[in-house]
């Protein structure tokens, strides 16, 4: 009877949503990693938006969090490239910068950097639920 009631550990494993975070600040990337991993997400980071594009296109991500103000390639440009190649992956803008209403159409949500973890996690949850 005990064998029939036993639950295998592998049956309890639930795949964590995988999130790519892109920001040129290592401090912000560490903060995002800490918050998102505590919330149960699998987090991959990149401080280089050009490298992040390659990582994104070769990886299997459920959502992407990007800063807008980065050297070389802005987060908005990165979001547009990702949406062109993978329109099913939501991109969330986590930035201290200001976006126009037209720019906001290219991202699933915009969360100001000072908004706090609860607002960020709420926007991520909404992005993942579609």
What does this 3D model show about the protein?
- This protein is of the alpha/beta class and 130 residues long.
- The chain has a single domain, classed as Response regulator (Rossmann fold, 3-Layer(aba) Sandwich).
- It contains seven helices and five strands.
- Strands 2-1-3-4-5 form a five-stranded parallel beta sheet, sandwiched between helices.
- Strand 1, helix 3 and strand 2 form a beta-alpha-beta unit.
- Helix 4 packs parallel to helix 5.
- The termini are far apart.
Can you tag this structure with a few keywords?
single chain; alpha/beta; Rossmann fold; five-stranded parallel sheet; 5 strands; 18% strand
CATH architecture name: 3-Layer(aba) Sandwich
Number of domains: 1
Q: How would you spell out the order of helices and strands?
A: HHEHEHEHEHEH
Tell me the strand percentage band: 15-25%
Spatial arrangement of strands, main beta sheet = 2-1-3-4-5
Our measurement of the CA-to-CA distance between the termini, rounded to an integer number of angstroms, reads: 42 Å
**Globular, elongated, flat, extended or rod-shaped: what is the shape?**
globular
Q: What percent of residues adopt helix (DSSP H or I)? A: 40-55%
SS content category: alpha/beta
Integer average pLDDT = 87
CATH homologous superfamily assignment: Response regulator
Give the biggest beta sheet: 5 strands, parallel
**Can you tell me the CATH topology?**
Rossmann fold
- Total of DSSP H or I helical runs spanning 4+ residues: 7
Question: Briefly, what CATH class?
Answer: Alpha Beta
Residue windows where pLDDT falls under 50 for at least 5 positions: 1-10
The radius of gyration is 16 Å
Number of DSSP strand runs: 5
